[in-house]
Amino acid sequence: MGSTFYSNYQNFMLFITFFLFWISIQFGEVVEDFIAYILVISLGILHGANDLLILSIKEKTDKTFIKNLFLYIGIIILCLIIYMFSSFVAILFFVVLSSYHFGEEHLSKKINVNGLFNSFYFLAYGIFIFSLIFSQSIADVDVIMRELTGFTFTEFQIEIALLTSGIFLCFGSMYLVLTKRNNLKIFIKEVFYLLLLFLVFQNSSLVLGFAIYFIFWHSVPSIIHQVEFISGNLNEKAIFYYVKKALIYWVISVVGLLVLYQLVPQIELFATVVFAILFAVTAPHTWVMHKMKN
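^ that's the sequence the OP posted. Answer follows.
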């Protein structure tokens, strides 16, 4: 059932992407951002809310789980310390980690050469996605970055990241095809996906563009894989169990997000709070998902 469900979901993913692409053309930024916030606060936060459950299943002994629990909390604290000392370095760290995480989730079932090649390929894919989003919404990126760090990414830096990651993806894909590790059809499909995402990012607000990719291209596929890992299958009962286990952590995260927005006066954009919360949980979540997949 899992493979059939995932295949059906990919068709739905394309449909909802086209639908939200149409929404972004028909309506203004207020409507776009409202939809984006609802998506990120619901499914976006939910997809990382069962990290501790996954750790408890992955590690069979209580001692190992406790060690990993402290490590999980320690990673969060380390991220906060890095942010306190250099917010710009912290956000750069967030982008790099998120890039790898996006690539691993999207490509880990398609690309398997060795640890080093896989890591660079996953990272290049994620950086390409981020650079594509940023390049189409430079003004909005500038506002959020200045609220978060006091600094920003220059247009030249974004273009260099886009070009460098694109070149690595091209040569890496050529290597995979020429060595017959992957079929050319896979990369033709991926090019189509990237062109579609480019149109979405070009015509939507920064927040909606990010939400479309983050939710429908990353979070929901990740939830599907997590449900299969936790329950061993994919059905309504397994999905309900996943949501039930995640609910308390989801509530805590949402309350924390709203409190932070109300209590920190220098934060004017809700988008800044959303990215700040995502930054705090990305590093430990990336570590847990890497353990789950390996």
